[in-house]
Amino acid sequence: MYLQAFVSTIVIFSLSAILAILLSASYVRKKTNSTLLWSSGMWLFSISVGLEIIFSVGIFSEGLIRFYTFLVAVLVSVLALGSTTLLKGKMTFYAYTLYFTASTIFLLVSLLVTHISNIILNGIVYGTLPLLVVLSSSFVTFPAAVILIVISLISFRKSWQPKLLSIVAGVLVVSVAGTLYIASFPSFLYIAEFIGILLLWIGFVDFGSLFKTKEVVSENVSGNV
User: Fold this and answer.
1) Burial 96-118 (b: 16+ CB within 10 A, else e)
2) Distance in angstroms (rounded) separating the CA atoms of residues 104 and 114
3) What CA–CA distance (Å, rounded) separates 154 from 219?
4) Hey, how many other C-beta atoms are within 10 angstroms of the C-beta on 90?
5) pTM of the model
6) Which residues are within 8 A (CB) of 216 and not within 5 positions of it... i.e. 6 or more apart?
7) Which residues are within 8 A (CB) of 43 and not within 5 positions of it... i.e. 6 or more apart?
8) For residue 118, what are the contacts with CB-CB under 8 A and spacing of at least 6?
9) Which of 77, 105, 109, 223 has the largest CB neighbor count within 10 A?
10) 25-60: per-residue pLDDT in tens?
């Protein structure tokens, strides 16, 4: 089990880190807020998978588990925040920024005041989190998932870009991966992460020119929603 978890996380980490680098390079060229936030979300995802690699070799502590839980929840909100920057008006962005800040503080407090027992079993993330942490994580992730779905569907209706659907599907699968972890379905956690990162690659990367990120969202949606 250790070897299986280690190999799986290495593959997922490599794919996510490369995509994060490509999106960061795209931000350097484009200087768009959406790309900055989406690349930041991908870096958070890469770091969380990096922690899974550490867990897979039997290295863990309560502090690392707290950090991992925080990353898994917040990365979805960062991606959703990036989507709100594509809207014409700024009210949605400002409103969600306030909610994001409040819900993140709630999550941090819940992680600090509760005791999290060992949730690493045979090198994989497995175990039930305290109810308060599950609740605060839900406050962070579920609204973010709804925002991603709504904005992406509106954007798709405006631009008819199939890659938009691949991006939102990838983000949602990644967020589901965190939910599966919370719900203690460890085998599906890594499968969901792998499928999610593949969908994000399909959505963000132009395979005709592998090292050129395709600004599908920001180029086709900005100013049209």
Assistant:
1) beebbeebbebbeebbeeeebee
2) 16
3) 15
4) 11
5) 0.79
6) 161, 163, 164, 167, 203, 204
7) 20, 24
8) 60, 65, 127
9) 77
10) 888 888 888 889 888 988 998 998 898 888 877 787
Point out which residues pair with 120 in neighbouring strands: 125
C-alpha–C-alpha distance, residues 25 and 113, integer Å = 39
CA distance 135 to 157: 33
Taking the C-alpha atoms of residue 110 and residue 70, their distance in angstroms, rounded to an integer, is 10
Would you give the DSSP letter of residue 114? S
Kindly state the tokens that stand for 12: 């997922």
Domain assignment of residue 225, yes or no:
no
172 token code pair: 């949602």
> What length is written for the chain?
225
Q: Which of 154, 53, 137, 33 is nearest to 93 (CA)?
A: 33
**Residue-range definition of the domain harbouring residue 21:** 2-212
Q: For the chain, what is the domain count? A: 1
